[in-house]
């Protein structure tokens, strides 16, 4: 029994890639805001957050947020490539 693969129309494909592009943009934006906040807590004003647990969590979240920026950029590149746009 052969499985038939359903073909997507160009309009549906374009909509999917637009959603991927939009999702990548949002992930990058939110991750950037989280990164700025955690860097502020960790490096700029550590005296206001003297609790060691807060400092450790802030360092870990900084690494995770920067990783999410990279994932968001990857999604953005996939979306732009799928729409036939130039990837910068």
What does this structure look like?
The structure is a single chain. Helix 1 runs antiparallel to helix 2. The protein starts with 9 loop residues before the first helix and ends in a 6-residue tail after the last helix. It contains two helices and no strands. It is 75% helix and 0% strand.
Keyphrases for this structure?
2 helices, 75% helix, mainly alpha, 88 residues
Q: Unreliable segments (pLDDT under 50, ≥5 consecutive)? A: none
Structural class: mainly alpha
Mean pLDDT: 93
Give me the count of strands: 0
Cα(first) to Cα(last) distance is 44 Å
Summed up, the helix count is 2
Gyration radius, rounded: 19 Å
- Give helix % range: over 70%
Proportion in β-strands? under 5%
Sum up the overall morphology in one term.
elongated
Largest sheet: none
Give, in order, the helices and strands: HH
Can you summarize this structure?
The chain is an all-alpha fold and 88 residues long.
List the SSEs and their pairings.
Elements lengths: L9 H35 L7 H31 L6
């Amino acid at each position: 029994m052969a499985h038939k693969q359903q073909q997507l129309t160009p309009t549906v494909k374009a909509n999917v890639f637009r959603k991927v592009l939009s999702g990548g943009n949002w992930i990058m934006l939110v991750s950037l805001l989280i990164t700025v906040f955690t860097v502020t807590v960790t490096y700029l004003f550590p005296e206001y957050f003297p609790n060691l647990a807060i400092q450790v969590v802030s360092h870990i979240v900084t690494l995770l947020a920067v990783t999410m920026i990279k994932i968001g950029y990857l999604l953005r590149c996939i979306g732009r490539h799928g729409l036939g746009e130039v990837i910068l």
